[in-house]
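Dear colleagues,

As part of the handover before I leave the project, I'm documenting each prediction I ran so the next person doesn't have to rerun anything. This entry is a single chain, and its sequence is reproduced below.
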Amino acid sequence: MSRPFASPGAQTVDWEERVNTDRLRTYRLGRAKAALATSEVGAVLLFDFNNIRYVTSTHIGEWARDKMTRYALLTRGGEPHLWDFGSAAKHHRMYAPWLPPENVNGGMVGLRGAVAPEAGLFRRAAREVAAILKAEGVGGMPIGVDIVEPPMLEALRDEGLTVCDAQQIMLDAREVKSQDEIMLLNTACAMVDGAYQLIAERLKPGIKESQVVAEVTKLLFDLGSEHVDNINAVSGERCSPHPHVFSDRIIRPGDQAFFDIIQTYVGYKTCYYRTFSVGMASDAQRDAYKTARHWIDASIELMKPGVGTDQVAKVWPKAEEFGFSSEMECFGLQFGHSVGLFLHERPIISRLNSLDHPVEIKEGMVIALETYCPAKDGYSAARIEEEVVVTADGPQVITRFPSAELFVANPY
């Protein structure tokens, strides 16, 4: 039987191997180069924060994620080029020796239109990119871009460049995780295990959903979280239909309550639901939980190399079978998605897309599986999510807070 994956602490020690950051950087850049080499493009120009981190192993905080001002370039056979926000570039030259210092510069294209395109920053950036492509021998090939502002796209085309989609190339690179990525994902899950222990202790009548969110956020930062992306806290009559957002609702006796904790540890995210009843549970709540558990167990069993995502989606109910009019309307409730530097990586598994466009499950993928079942009382609902590592020996679940049965918090 295979051993469980390690989830060591964040501290560096000399007496056991933990995350090897040099190995992590080498693996990720190697995967990106290999995906680029098999594509039709000569280079990828990356604005997506996750792709920039995957290729350059740089990060300047979540505040910059929506600014569209950092970008990186990787050419066939070349080393990464990075344009970063102001003084961050100088910092990288001092503290990121894995990047050629001459390839790291300040960059600015307008902060999503706050500086008008007429200022010429897009044109300047496009000229710099075109010059590098020519110097590195790929000037005559198309360039892939992952996400882009229209003025940047226009400026690249004005330089005579043919622009293609780079996001698919990068998703190809990122779909199979290394041992270090799995260790980071597993440690991130261990932090959420602790968050659910806190929730189990604090979930009593009189506490608000928003208070639970605040206390869990603090705990996660205390444990070493880089960023708490989102915590869904949904209780009582808010459970069905799922609103996907917390409120200031006060928890009451007999409530069903479910939570999704999405947080980031050294870049790697969790997506991890658990459902509780408060003080006591009704038959309707227990029945809904048993059904959701049955659906998720059936999908976990299929997390094996070579299985198609259509086979997984088929074990989940059709939209009409649990109260929805279409697969689009219930998308994300019976759901699977890889997790990594981004919350939703390939493969995405649902009846909406997987039945007609299946993807092969591969060893080394880390896939979060989610199920949802409304209760017969008309307002309660059960929500369960497990993160699963696909191995040659079968699936390994790395989300460990108890979920085999409906957890009654602080029973009377």
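The radius of gyration is 23 Å. The chain has two domains: 21-174, 179-409.

All the best with the project,
I.
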